[in-house]
UniProtKB/TrEMBL annotation:
<feature type="transmembrane region" description="Helical">
    <location>
        <begin position="95"/>
        <end position="128"/>
    </location>
</feature>
<keyword id="KW-0472">Membrane</keyword>
<keyword id="KW-1003">Cell membrane</keyword>
<dbReference type="InterPro" id="IPR001851">
    <property type="entry name" value="ABC_transp_permease"/>
</dbReference>
<feature type="transmembrane region" description="Helical">
    <location>
        <begin position="216"/>
        <end position="240"/>
    </location>
</feature>
<feature type="transmembrane region" description="Helical">
    <location>
        <begin position="323"/>
        <end position="342"/>
    </location>
</feature>
<feature type="transmembrane region" description="Helical">
    <location>
        <begin position="148"/>
        <end position="169"/>
    </location>
</feature>
<keyword id="KW-1133">Transmembrane helix</keyword>
<feature type="transmembrane region" description="Helical">
    <location>
        <begin position="61"/>
        <end position="83"/>
    </location>
</feature>
<feature type="transmembrane region" description="Helical">
    <location>
        <begin position="348"/>
        <end position="364"/>
    </location>
</feature>
<keyword id="KW-0812">Transmembrane</keyword>
<dbReference type="Pfam" id="PF02653">
    <property type="entry name" value="BPD_transp_2"/>
</dbReference>
<feature type="transmembrane region" description="Helical">
    <location>
        <begin position="268"/>
        <end position="290"/>
    </location>
</feature>
<feature type="transmembrane region" description="Helical">
    <location>
        <begin position="302"/>
        <end position="318"/>
    </location>
</feature>
<feature type="transmembrane region" description="Helical">
    <location>
        <begin position="176"/>
        <end position="196"/>
    </location>
</feature>
<protein>
    <submittedName>
        <fullName>ABC transporter permease</fullName>
    </submittedName>
</protein>
<feature type="region of interest" description="Disordered">
    <location>
        <begin position="1"/>
        <end position="43"/>
    </location>
</feature>
Amino acid sequence: MTETGKPRLEKTGAGEPAPTGTPIPAGDGSPVPAGDGSPVPPGPRFTVPGWAKRIAAVNEAWTFGVLVLLVAFFTIAAPGTFLTQYDITQIATNAAIYLVLGVGMTFVIIVAGIDLSVGSVLVLAAVLSGEYTVHHGGAESGWGTITVAALIALATGLVWGAVQGLLVAKAKVPPLIVTLGGFGAALGLAQIITGGQDLTGAVSGKLQHSIGFGKLFGQIPWLVVIAFGTTVLFGLVLAYTRFGRYTYAIGSNAEGARRVGIAVDRHLVLVYALAGLLAGLGSVMWLAYFGTTSIAGHSTDNLKVITAVVLGGASLFGGRGSVLGTVIGVFIPAVLTTGLIIIGVQQYWQDVAIGVVLVLAVYLDQFRRRSRDRG
């Protein structure tokens, strides 16, 4: 107190006077003494653990969370009938072919491309493979014919994908246009070759009973084993090899990648060739499981595969994505479709639900991009 009886004023850190005895908040948030000298405890604080922040920042964590919620919902909605051993086997088997296609699409989308032709390439590869089988023993053909027919399917997909890659990389035609044209051209060639009718005797019985319906150790379908092996192999390639690093670099900034010495055009050709090769592998799996070329049954394969990759966290703008995310993304529509069937939802609503999920996934991707750009 001053001699006049008024409180003495002191300068605070903000440059404003404050009465003596008034507690001044400490910069580090520690308790400060009040006028009577007793400490004033700080307000309650909640700090998110570092490990939780790291998990939340991983795209696959969000996607896996959606998958877990779907499984939990259908398990509660249909107790005892959903997620039985039979359901798990069927979901995994039905997802196997789309997973193989999705692995190739993952590489394409990470380089900021798109491939609308995968379904038609699968059909064309199956038709050419089937034509060879028809003329070399048909349904009674042996492993020699099976091997050559499989190589024909793989080569068809590889060459078709490489041609599309050349048009994208060298001719500078937008990938949307190139692969849309490839979608129509491949399907048209398949229809010309077969007259629009599925081939009879296009699949060896040995292929169907071994790869198509056989199971490893009597438990795991061979289709699932093939899909798993393909996923692990190319997941490691994407995550740990120079090819994978170049894929991310080109998708993030193609011109920057070119300036540091990456052969961008050659890499794009290889990426589209890989997508075609895996479409060829998918055709072999399809023939083994369904026993027919199914010419009219693949018009929406491209949308299903792109949906899976985007749901898995890959960005349509390039530079981000993972094979692990694609695995999760493939199983979301598979679980959703199976669950809706079990609870009795009409098939048309299933398509609506999957479409809504895709739009939400793309919106989430754009929201993340805007947040990242602001932060």
